[in-house]
Every structure is written in structure tokens, then in C-alpha cells.
Amino acid sequence: MVSAPSLDEQAYVRGGETQTAVKILVVGHFAVGKTTFIGSISEIEPLSTEETMTQAAESVDDLKGVQGKTTTTVAMDFGRLTISDRVVLYLFGTPGQQRFVQMWEDMARGALGALVLVDPERLADSFPVIDLIEHYGLDYAIAVNHFDGAPPRDERALREALDLLDDTPVVTCDARDERSSAAALTTLVRYLLDRSR
Fold first, then answer.
1. Is 81 in contact with 91 (CB distance < 8 Å)?
2. Interior CA angle at 90 toward 89 and 95, to 5°?
3. If we measure between CA atoms, which residue out of 113, 105, 150 comes closest to residue 22?
4. Where residue 141 falls among pLDDT bands split at 50, 70, 90?
5. Which InterPro entries has this protein been placed in (predicted)?
6. How far apart are CA 189 and CA 133, in angstroms?
7. For every residue of the chain, which 3-state class applies, written as one string?
8. Of 28, 69, 124, 150, which is most buried, counting CB atoms within 10 Å of its CB?
9. How far is C-alpha 74 from the geometric centre of its chain's CA atoms?
10. Which residues lie below 8 Å from residue 189, measured CB to CB, with a gap of 6+?
């Protein structure tokens, strides 16, 4: 298990001011919107390792429910968001395919928490992701990504289906929308702050 640092352990000096660097993972199963989420909210040009999917991946990656997807993350996504003069979030998006799971241990090291993106039409795909986050001892919030045409979901039913603890935050977001993504991230940060007190 990787132990998460506290907020004050992440302090660094930038431009004469002490700031707190907070590492946050943005995780989820294949094709749930992690790259889109980081791209919508990062204040810098996000680092993306999106590559064109090949025919070789067709036999490995389940494209059911995500027809039209032509690219996939092969290493990670990275973005940055300054939320105050004192706190900067560094967002690390993990690849969603099972074959990239070995990268998670390194990515989880030093992370304060994780935002787990979930597709309500493919909830079962989220179980291995949540298991990994819990294995690494990270606190997390669930962000239910809204896809066009998807019906709204009952939060209680989602909680039960994902077997969440009562205090685990669940929010709905649209990963394409900066404001919606910011609200989901704010929910996670508030939860992490409450847990660190």
C-alpha cells in the first residue's frame, strides 16, 4: 500500500511564496473521459499520450458502448490547476486498460487522492478501478460522467451498485465542460481536506 502524503508535506517555494503542490489521480475504466476531463480543466496545455487505436487493439479493448473511439491513452495524461495562491493541483490521468495497470503503483505514489470517473452504462467496468484505488489506500470521490442521450441515474442506486461507503462523495459531471469538471474536482478536494483534519 502506498501511503498518501498530507497537505503540508507537499509544500514548495515558487516565486518567493510557499505553495502546496497536490497530486491528484484522475482514474476510470477505458473510454470513460479521463483525457477529456483533464483537457477541459487544465490551465496549461495538457500533456496527453493519446495514440490512434490499431487493429491489434480491437481484440483487447472492449469498444462496446464507445463506438467511434479512435484514440486511447497509452501512458498518462497530465494537467495543472491553480486553485489559490497557496494550492496547485497536479492532475495525473491513468490509462484505463487492464494491460497498463502496472503503471498505477508509480502514479499512486505521492497522490493525495483520486477522482474516479464512472460511466453509468458500464458500472461493472469501474469495479477493478475502485479496487486498485482502495488497494493503494487513496481516498476518492466518484464523478459520474454524463454522456449524451444517457438517462439520469439515481444516486442511491449508483452507491449500492458500486458498494460505496456512506461518506464517499458522488457527483455528476460532464467531462467536456470546464465548470462541471471544476465542480467535481472541488468536491474531491473538499472531501480530502475534511479527511485530513
1. yes
2. 135
3. 113
4. very high
5. Gliding_Motility_GTPase, Gpn, P-loop_NTPase
6. 16
7. CCCCCCHHHHEEEECCEEEEEEEEEEEECCCCCHHHHHHHHCCCCCEEEEEECCHHHHCCCCCCCCCCCCEEEEEEEEEEEECCCCEEEEEEECCCCHHHHHHHHHHHCCCCEEEEEECHHHHHHHHHHHHHHHHCCCEEEEEEECCCCCCCCCHHHHHHHHCCCCCCCEEEECCCCHHHHHHHHHHHHHHHHHHHC
8. 28
9. 16
10. 22, 24, 83, 89
How high is the pLDDT of residue 39?
93
Write down the pTM of the prediction: 0.79
Mean pLDDT of 75-104: 80
90-127 pLDDT tens trace: 999 987 656 566 677 788 899 999 999 999 988 999 99
> In the structure grid, which three cell numbers stand for residue 135, read together?
488497494
